[in-house]
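Pilot study result, target chain (456 residues):
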Amino acid sequence: MAESKEEVDVLVQRVVKDISSAFKRHPNIDEIGLIQCPEARYNRSPIVLVENKLGVESWCVKFLLPYVHNKLLLYRQRKHWLDREALVDITCTLLLLNPDFTTAWNVRKELLQCGALNPERDLYLSKLALTKFPKSPETWIHRRWVLQHILDQFSSVAQMTEQPVESEHPDAERTLLLSNHLNRLIHQEMKVCSDAACRYPSNYNAWSHRIWVLQHMAKGNIKVFHDELSSVHPWVSMHVSDHSGFHYCQFLLKELITEFSQSSSSASTIFGSSQHWTSTVPSSSHLANGERSLDYSPSGERFATVLQLFYQETELCSDLIQTFPGHETLWSHRRHVYYLWHQWTQDQHPCGDGRESELNLLGTNDPGDTRPTCAIHGGNVDRQRHVSVPMEVDGVSFPDRDSKRLRRGILLPNLLTLQNEHIFVNSILDSCCNPEQKNFALAYKKWLDTVISAQS
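Predicted structure:
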């Protein structure tokens, strides 16, 4: 093993060069890690590459990390000159070993701004760093900076494309390429965040980055938000104690509700043709007896879509609470979902006395029959009429007793009423022997009685 300063310098220079060569020879490296090896047993490079996995033997880190750290600090203090290629190699080695070293990321920002570094290459480096350090805050911060830099470039190109040019059509091909590139970046970021969340439990930094990406790169794209909500459900079902994942679901649900309240064509954008929805849920109108029913219009379509979102989230939460008793995260999520529902219904149909209005959904089998088949708040349900209507999923009819996971586009009885929440809590209290589950159920029931009942 090297001991003198000259021998150490030769060693670390060779290791830095080996790391750089490894990336050039194998551009598809997808993970880094340390190989526990207290001392050098063989006269060979400590860099090991197996099936796109890059490993560094631990014995060399105590020599390698101080060397690249001091080299970079001397460069920043203008006491030592390094060319751009050397800077790229040194910062790459340093950040793979210590990604929270802000100075190294700042040097790469400067290289990126002067055109000496490709933004895609920096995203790749930060992705590799996150495979070893999935919660590194500086890495997530730098990744957002690079993405914002790319978005600024997109904006500049888009403005140039939109400028009128005589005898030329707008550059539709360039616009399409930019759109495809943006979609690819969004998909890539979702994958990086998901991998980091799996590697480190309750990875707040990863989920916060995921929210940032949607807010800045997919703002107003309802399909992306809806696909994200659908794709994250299996993940949270396998990580029932990870509050960060459920917080992400709450963010998506709130954004979707806001968008549906503002857009007139959102539901058809996500669920395709509105024919399937209008066969089950009409839009708002007034009956002769003064009750509120639903007609066929875009507003009713949006209303049905919001009902579907709330129903899916509540059903998922109910299943998880019953399957995995004693997890406070699940009860907190249910509380948030019900509060969103409570606020949304009040915003849609406020009553003069401050109480929630009863929104009655009507069946559509007989146009002349105005009997309410479902009341969202406190109404009774004509269950026989629901049973007589076959459930239709993607053009295939299913009986009403089939799996609730398949229910889409069907009018659902007694959705999220205060009475039904009490029934659900009481069923948990009567059937569960888990003391923590009972405590969480009692706390939720108390919240319903003190907060929701007071506002209704």
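One observation from the pilot: Residues 172-199 form the longest helix (28 residues). A full batch analysis is planned for the follow-on phase.
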